[in-house]
Amino acid sequence: MLTHDDADNGPRPWDRRQGESAAAWAAFAAYRDAGPVRSLEKTGAKLGRTRNAVGLHSARWNWTERTAAYDAWLDRQGQAKAVDATRDARARQARHALALQLVAMERFESMDPLTMTVSEAIRAWQVGAQEERRALGIPDAASVDHTGAGLPLGFVPVTEVIIERPAVDDGPEPAP
C-alpha cells in the first residue's frame, strides 16, 4: 500500500499522475470522491461509460491503492479534528468550571457556618473532599481496591474521627 506523510509536500497518491489523461483523471476523481459506496459500476454509470472501460483505467492507474491512501488520509484528518475539538471542549469546560467555582466560593464565603443546616454542611464537606481528591489525583473510594475488612483503602471509620465543634459564647455560665 502506498503511504504518504502529511508533512511531505510532494504529490500525494490520490493526486493526478503524470501521463494520466483528463478522462482517466476525471474517472478516478469520481471514483475516489464516491467514498465508502464507490464501485466501478457506479462510476461508469455516473460517467456514461461501461464498467470495463472504467476498470481499465482503474487497473492501469492503481485506483484501489490510491483510494485506500486517500481514505486513510481522510481518516487521519478526521481524527485530528476530533482531537482538536476535544481539547477545545476541555479548555472551554475548565474555564466554565472555574467561573462557577468562583461564584460558588463567593456565595459560600458570605455564609455564616453556624446558620448552615447539617445537610448543607455535610454536602459542602463532601463536595470539597471529592474535588480535593480529584485535584490531587486520588481515586474515588468506589474505584479503589478493598481491604480484607471490606473498607476502601485509606478509609477511616467515623467512630475513629474526632469532631470538634467551634466554641460558642453563650454568655456567662448560669449559676448552679
Keywords:
rod-shaped, 176 residues, mainly alpha
Structural notes for this entry:
It is a single chain. By secondary structure, the protein is mostly helical. It is built from five helices and no strands. Helix 2 crosses helix 3. The longest helix has 47 residues. It is rod-shaped. The termini are far apart. 8% of the residues are buried.
* Oligomeric status: single chain
Beta strand %: under 5%
Estimated structural class: mainly alpha
Termini separation: 97 Å
Question: Mean pLDDT, rounded to whole units?
Answer: 81
| Biggest beta sheet attributes | none
General form: rod-shaped
Number of helices: 5
**DSSP strand tally:** 0
Contiguous runs where pLDDT drops below 50 for at least 5 residues:
157-163
Helix content percent band = 40-55%
Give the radius of gyration. 34 Å
Secondary-structure element pattern, one letter each: HHHHH
